[in-house]
Amino acid sequence: MPLKALDIYKLLPKKNCKECGDPTCLTFAMKLASGKGDVTKCPYLDEDAKVVLGASTRPPIQLVRVGVGELRFGVGDEFVLFRHEKTFYHPTALMISVSDRWTADEIRVQTRRVASDHLVRVGADLRLNGIAIRNDSGSPEAFGKAVAAVEETATHLPEVLMATDPAAQEAGLASCGHFRPLIHAATMETYPAMCGLAKKFGCPLVISAPDLATLSDLSKRCTAEGVARLMLDVSPSSLADYIPAATLIRRLAICRAQPEFGYPVFLDATRYGNQDTAIALGILKYASVIATETLPPATLRAALTLRQNIYTDPQKPIQMNPGLYPIGSPGKDAPVLMTVNFSLTFFTLQGYLESARVPCYMLIVDTEGLSVLTAVASGKLNETLVKESLKRFDVGSSVTHRKLIIPGYASPLSGRIEEETGWKVLVGPRDAAEIGEYLAQEWKS
Amino acid sequence: MTDGGSDWSGKIGEVVLGATAADGGTRKVSYRVGGDDDLPFLGGCTSGHRPLVAYEICDDPGLWPQIVRDYCGDLVNDPASWSKAAEREYGADLIRLSLTSTRRRGFSDFAALGKTVHDVLHATGLPLIIEGSNDPQIDSEVFQQCGEAGQGERLLLGTAEAGRYRSVAAAALAYGHGVIAQSPIDINLAKQLNILLKEIGVPLDRVVIDPYTGALGYGFEYSYSVMERIRYSALKGDQDLQVPMISAASDSLNIKEVREAEPAIRDEMAVRWEFYAALPAIVAGAAIVVVRHPGTVKALRDAVEKMWPGEVTANAAQGA
Ligand code: B12
Ligand code: SF4
Question: Which CATH superfamily is domain B14-311 in?
Fold first, then answer.
């Protein structure tokens, strides 16, 4: 629901200085209320008022940052319901839980693991985003200690403090408040105290309610308290309710129908007795932060890969710059292997070449990011492109031989490439995993 | 509060898989797939039917992922017993039989195919999907054999593609089966193929779209989005796309992450890799997902149970 002119007027500086182009603050407020004004025209608005008023100028889903320093992440700032309409911008953050019932040692081990666990895929470093500290004990003191144990172990790892009791939150924030952790969660009962804490430390705040109508009300109350960085926990009672709730919030937010829903969604994946399902649904359908238990290695890889897939830009595949790339320190008699500039292809082949320990060159030709088979099928990979690339990257002066190894899937092109370039073409294996064996057996310069 | 909800004019058509005795077949159950009139999981159980999990077996395990051969042991040498295990132990909703023997150079033992289909139908009461040859030279004979062996059972025969759909369509029409129409990750090609099938007399209530699914991390994002687009266009009213979808990320068990996993977690990796592509495919609109590791079947059935509002069993198997 848009704010009324008088509500807006209350937030304006009331200087009546006319710098916004309106004669008075009140007329400016009326213009904003009708959706025709631009809040940024008033130079004297404080930050919070700007955010509260900015529903019409800010992105339909507020960008919310958690943490400080290099590991800080931002979520929200999304514009579409389906990734094919444009893209999803800010990948879901995965936060791994520790409990304040654990010993300090257990907490440290887990924290260290979260800080170091990562995997590299397609040249991108995929990692977990932080720690969710849970107040299972009910004791503020135990919670404060648990937070301190995490802090000691990894100072700048983003955190979400999960405690329903404001006293426990306060105990936790005492040791990490200025590192901007996410506070989880304010409810209809606790929001005045939780808003107070969020404002005191400048932290983002998750709000939680059993149904969307209450959540909408709570969201308005918290913004009225002056908290501008919110996240929404719809706390569905079952996973069957998650997709409808999260989709509805996203729809209402992006059409700006209800600015109180214009915040990122938080999902506690541990509540449903089927964590993998909750994680997958969260990644696919609009969860910006997911709290989970420890992820076994297989789940970790699969979940991070799904997240990477869903959050890549559908309009442009991740591409490499075309060129001649040395592997090891190739001499003039080293083999030259041709492939496409789709980064998945590049990194897959590169990985196998590195483990094969045969110094060589990779000739990357510009297929506009298409994989080998796709490029062959669409005609983007052809003899002219190969000829131009050999010339453009001056491959002939890096090696003395004139032999080019092409991917097995490009074998239909071998004759034409040979004719067009004058290089002798060797058809390599289809599967890059076999490249080491192939080079060992077949390569003679 | 407004619900900001969707207002669709289209609806996904229904396709029946498997024929029970009442319909002249011998299946214990038959399924209706499709029927949805909203985006997946938004319409509740009033719209559409529970997604189904198919377990895929083959008749020539030499061409099957090593990890499945290790896990299933001797079963892989006997499609009939394997299909029985899929039904009783793995908990599959239906079976997909991939006739890998036809991929061998110079394959000519067509009669053996008919026998395999017959044996599998005898061993399991579940509806059957058949993945035939992929060589136009032998298509006609292969599909003829399978179609005939499964006459009256309402099989789902695959795969029709833009360049080769006549043989499979002819067998489906002659023996009363459905057809899988596969196109490479492209909504327009999916539509075109359905039009081609319609033109030669295959009604769309016998067609299931396979938009081609790349493995997780190996093209899955394209497949996910093309499924979302097909579903969306169908709901918007494009009648040629108003058919259910099937998704099989068949390469999942051959990828690097699975092949190179530590032995202690290799099975778990295989299951998670299939799961994290199949569940998203369901969320994007697939009515049937196909997997190859037995462990994935249970994981997916549990997931669907959690996501499906109300009684799962009530929606599971409605008689045709
Ligand atoms: C994702 C995908 C797409 C994406 C594009 C993704 C991209 N960036 O390329 C989209 C949706 C855009 C697409 C489009 C098309 N696609 Co497509 N696509 C795929 C899919 C599912 C995965 C491709 C992939 O990412 N592979 C992974 C990479 C790493 O593989 P790779 O590049 O081949 O590299 C491997 C090997 O070649 C080898 N290797 C690589 N380089 C080298 C070098 C040397 C020297 C050696 C030895 C080895 C080697 O190592 C790698 C790992 O083993 C495949 C199916 C499949 N499983 O391959 C179909 C597939 C390739 N597509 C296909 C087709 C037909 C098309 C289209 C023509 C259809 C259409 N819509 O018009 C278009 C063409 C593109 C266009 N019009 O511009 C067909 C090709 C059929 C054929 N055999 O020719 C396939 C096989 C699907 C099918 N079965 O129908 N596609
Ligand atoms: S610029 Fe700001 S303070 Fe000045 S009149 Fe406009 S609204 Fe009031």
Answer: Dihydropteroate synthase-like (3.20.20.20)
